[in-house]
Every structure is written in C-alpha cells, then in structure tokens.
Amino acid sequence: MKKQWLSVPYGIWALVFSIAPILIIAVYSFCSRSAYGNIIYEFTAENYGKFLEPIYINVLWRSVLLATQSTLACFILGYPMAMIIAKSTIKKRNIMVMLFVLPLWTNFLLRTYAWMVLLRDQGVINQFLIYIGIIDEPLKLLYSHNAVLLGMVYNFLPFMVLPIYSVLSKLDNSLVEAAEDLGAPPWQVFLKVIFPLSLPGVISGAIMVFMPAVSTFVISDLLGGGQTVLLGNLIQNQFLVARNWQFGSAISMIMIIMILITMGITSKYQGEGGGRQLW
C-alpha cells in the first residue's frame, strides 16, 4: 500500500466537513431571499451591499476593536508568563504548562458562566470589595464592554502563552550570552535578540487569539448581555432568528476573507527559521 493513500481519509474529512460547508455558504451568500425567508437561487450581490450599511459597519468595527484589544492584552500578559515558564526548570515548567492547559479541559460555556457569577452585582468580586470597605455599593461589572474583553482575555490567553513559550524554550542561549558578553544591557538583549527571535511565536499566538475573538458570540452574549453585538452574534441572529441565511452567509464570507487577509499579512513578517530584526 502506497504511503500517499494514507492521506485519503484526511482528504475526504477535509472535503466533507471543511471545504464543502464553505462552498455552500459561498453559494448562499449570492442567492436571493423570498418574502418568507426561503432561498432563491438567483445571483445577486445585494447581501454584500447590505453589509455596507452603517449599522453593520459599526458591528464590524466593534468586533475588530475588541479582538485587537484582547489580542494586545493577551500579548502583554502572556509574553512575560511565557518567558517565566521557558526559564524555569523542567519540573516547574511542566507544572506551569499544565496549569495553563487545565482550564481548557473545562467546557468553554461553563468557564464563561463562571465569570457571570464573579462579576454580577451580588457576585464574589463586588461582595469582597464591599466587605473590605473599598466600595459602598456594587459596581456595574457585568454586561459591559470591559466584561466581554475580560472574558476574551481569560479564555484565549493560553493560545498566546503556549506558542510563545514553545519558541522561547528552543531559543539558542549562546546568542543571548554573546550579546551579554559584548556589553549589551538586559533591555537591549531583549529587544535585539530575544524578542526578534520569538516573533514566530508571537505572530502565531496573535493569530490564534484574534481569529476566535473576532468571531465569538458566546462571550458577548453572556457577559455583554446582548448589549455588545459582534459579528458572531450578527451571524447567529441571521441564521437562527431572522431566517436570512443569505445575509448570514455573506457576513460569514466577509469574516473568512478578513481572517485570511490577516493571516497573510502576519505570515509575511514571520521568518521560517526565526524572527526578524526590529531595526
């Protein structure tokens, strides 16, 4: 049996469950809609033109803004964590990696519900702040922009930490030692050597955080209380409530194209054998 035949099951799986659904959505996005919501197989670009209306552009902007903010927050928090893990002993390193992976074993929905318990008016955070006397009445933490951002950072932080850690753990320490021997201060060693070499991990982590963040709808539904409508919420609404599969498909295709463009731009700056120099 030839080795290339071993890839046939994967090819069939990808065709049936990945490529075919995207093609169906692409076809639906160019179809018309009857008065009762049925699909009419007549070519039209009206669904894409409808997305250019200000209300939907605002949703797109809000989604990109939140996804960018969560990606930056995950990077700021995740890079130092990845460095700490990479510089630890093997035993401590394995324990810390396990602690990052462990929450991912819990259902995504349950983890988001847990934050609702923490952030609500009678939740743990407000009750603790009242108990120690910092506030007199509960803060409005839940159902806000910051609550959605917090939920995104919490759920997607491991996707930033683990790729960066993977690159830093394989970093050639002789390059760092050479820079130190040449008299470079710690901050210059980091900016000139460590960070450029870790760029592949940073870019991979940014992609892995940005893509689910820009398309999520569970976090914005639960922690935003329906007040923070993102692209994922809009697509969900079009398919399940408005019965406008054509417009929902058009939004889905726009999101796919946007993600592909983002991946193309970021991969351009990702070196195959390591990061690039900053200057």
Write up what this structure looks like:
The chain has 279 residues and is an all-alpha fold. The chain has one domain (27-278): MetI-like (MetI-like fold), CATH 1.10.3720.10. Helix content is 70%, strand content 1%. It contains 13 helices and 2 strands. The protein has helices at residues 8-29, 46-50, 54-87, 90-101, 108-119, 124-131, 145-168, 173-181, 186-197, 199-215, 218-224, 231-240, 245-268; strands at 32-33, 39-40. It has a two-stranded antiparallel sheet. A hairpin with a 5-residue loop joins strand 1 and strand 2. Helix 7 runs antiparallel to helix 10 (199-215), helix 8 (173-181) packs antiparallel against helix 9 and helix 12 packs antiparallel against helix 13 (245-268). The longest helix has 34 residues, at 54-87. It is globular, with a radius of gyration of 23 Å. It starts with 7 loop residues before the first helix and ends in an 11-residue tail after the last helix. Mean pLDDT is 88; it is low at 272-279.
CATH architecture grouping: Orthogonal Bundle
What's the arrangement of strands in the largest beta sheet? 1-2
| β-strand number | 2
- Briefly note the structural class of the backbone: mainly alpha
Mean pLDDT rating: 88
Distance between the ends: 52 Å
The helix/strand series, from N terminus to C terminus, equals HEEHHHHHHHHHHHH
The biggest sheet, with number of strands, parallel, antiparallel or mixed sense and barrel status, is:
2 strands, antiparallel
> How much beta, percentage-wise?
under 5%
CATH structural class: Mainly Alpha
Low-pLDDT segments, ≥5 res:
272-279
Fourth CATH level, the homologous superfamily: MetI-like
Coarse shape: globular
Number of domains: 1
Please give the radius of gyration in angstroms.
Answer: 23 Å
User: What percentage of residues falls in helices of 4 or more residues?
Assistant: over 70%
Output the number of helix runs: 13
